[in-house]
Amino acid sequence: MRLTRYFLPVLKENPAEAQIVSHRYMLRAGMIKQQAAGIYSWLPLGYRVLRRIEEIVHEEQVRAGHIPLLMPTLQPADLWRESGRYDAYGPEMLRLKDRHEREMLYGPTNEEMITDIFRAHVSSYKDLPLTLYHIQWKFRDEMRPRFGVMRGREFLMKDGYNFDIDRDAALHAYNRHMVSYLRTYERMGLTAIPMRAASGPIGGDDTHEFLVLAQTGESEVFYDDRVTALKLGDRQIDYDDRAQVAEVCREFTTLYARTDETHDPALFDQIPEAHRKVGRGIEVGQIFYFGTKYSAALGATVVTASGEKVPVEMGSHGIGVSRLLGAIIEASHDDRGIIWPEGVTPFPVGIVNLKQGDGAADAACERLYGMLKAQGLEPLYDDRDERAGAKFATMDLIGLPWRLTVGPRGLAAGKVELTCRRSGASEEMSPEAAVDRLTEIYAAHR
Ligand code: ATP
Ligand code: MG
To answer: Would the CB of 323 count as within 6 Å of ligand 1?
Structure first.
């Protein structure tokens, strides 16, 4: 992508309405535009990251054996009357009527609808286990939408629902989600800690929230700081292996980590003083096991191997896809701008031409551009007729993890400069070596 042909409405001034750094940088980097309280347009740069995050979520869900589908944003009120949640949900639910005076709502979540799909088409244990998920816009008329995409009213969520024959199978689905979520967040360069939480309007007794530690987080958290060092890394997971998946979950949930709702001061005091931490976190996901709460209410039953008709066991599992952009920026930035982890960056590398219009510099940039594209690494080429300082400032603000700087002086020696956004370290090398290096770096993130 050439910057002169792109749409990147960068702001020079700090927007007054932004209270936290992620909101400020998303506005300044031209990623989003507010259209109403808690409702945003996703401008091209923001949309690229959003799509990248969606892609990772999809890949990890499919890897875990879960099946994508797509349910609508608008739902009939009657379905929610069956579960009793139409009255229970309160003013966060956006209710509307169509031209025939039929009551509708903009879905805040989809337990009822997925249960309706299940009861229409599945009736035998032979069709289980089954986990269906979608990535779809939700609406919750939050009392205080704030912090940009962190607490929006319209927001993008991945929500998945497991259907299982018995409690053990449903608990395996719960564990499978935990592991697939850990992998999802790690690929985004995030440490998200599973913490025992309270279930709220979804219901059920087993639930964990995934929290990214950040001072701007809305949740108070209590934890043993050794949890922050746990990593899945590149270990192989067989998602059908109940024992292995349960063991990974145990590893990640044995150390104390809780939100204020489930915090137990007596247990917390048993952590060695040096590891006992109180902090704040951003909730980027939550998993629930709730058994037959919705299946019993909506009559979603299956016939077991012994011929008995039982309500199907269920759980639901959500990832805050749009909130993740804010969470990643809160966790990865400096005073010049965003620092995207390679896994989610909108462009893998930026090319800065120090002397636009100079024959040799222009030609070298074009050549680099072509070589990178051939490797599947679409660069953002700053081909504006601007000062070097302004180009560097833009690249730093939008946070591409790598920058290639091309100028007549380096070219005279056959070199370009490769700079790491995170460390600031620069190295001169031939264009070929730079392309090789970037290809190698990104191979680990595909
Ligand atoms: P919160 O406690 O932050 O209001 P929640 O527990 O009500 O969230 P869930 O029902 O667990 O939310 O939804 C799954 C995920 O969707 C959350 O973990 C969060 O990442 C995201 N999410 C929830 N509400 C919002 C919102 N208003 N804006 C952006 N993302 C949200
Ligand atoms: Mg939650």
So the answer is: yes
Q: How many CA atoms lie within 13 A of 123 on its CB side?
A: 3
Identify which of 161, 406, 124, 433 has the alpha carbon closest to the alpha carbon of residue 294.
161
* DSSP letter assigned to residue 15: P
Whether residues 300 and 430 share a domain: the answer is no
Q: Please provide the DSSP assignment of 332-356 as one string.
A: SEETTEE---TTT-SSS-EEEETTT
Together in a domain, 378 and 316: no
Shared domain for 207 and 116, answered yes or no, is yes
Report the domain count for the chain: 2
Q: Which domain holds residue 235?
A: 3-338
- Which atom of ligand 1 lies closest to the CA of 109? 10
On whether both 213 and 292 belong to a single domain, the answer is yes
Cα 392 to middle of ligand 2, angstroms: 39
Determine the distance separating the centroid of ligand 1 and the alpha carbon of 355, expressed in angstroms: 47
Ligand 1 pocket member 318 (CB < 6 A): yes
Is residue 59 a part of any domain in this protein?
yes
The reply to whether ligand 1 has any atom less than 6 angstroms from the CB of 286 is yes
C-alpha neighbours within 13 Å on the C-beta side of residue 213: 15
Within 13 Å of residue 20, how many CA atoms lie on the same side as its CB? 20
Would you write out the chain's pLDDT as a tens digit for each of its 446 residues? Answer: 999 999 999 999 999 999 999 999 999 999 999 999 999 999 999 999 999 999 999 999 999 999 999 999 999 999 999 999 999 999 999 999 999 999 999 999 999 999 999 999 999 999 999 999 999 999 999 999 999 999 999 999 999 999 999 999 999 999 999 999 999 999 999 999 999 988 766 666 689 999 999 999 999 999 999 999 999 999 999 999 999 999 999 999 999 999 999 999 999 999 999 999 999 999 999 999 999 999 999 999 999 999 999 999 999 999 999 999 999 999 999 999 999 999 999 999 999 999 999 999 999 999 999 999 999 999 999 999 999 999 999 999 999 999 999 999 999 999 999 999 999 999 999 999 999 999 999 998 87
Ligand 1 in reach of 403 Cβ (< 6 A): no
pTM: 0.97
**Same-domain status, 311 and 371:** no
CATH number at residue 368: 3.40.50.800
User: Which residue's CA is the nearest one to ligand 1's atom 15?
Assistant: 320
Domain boundary among 338, 357, 373: 338
**Which amino acid residue places its CA nearest to atom 27 of ligand 1?**
151
The answer to whether residues 378 and 295 belong to one domain is no
For residue 320, the CA-to-ligand 1 centroid distance in Å is: 6
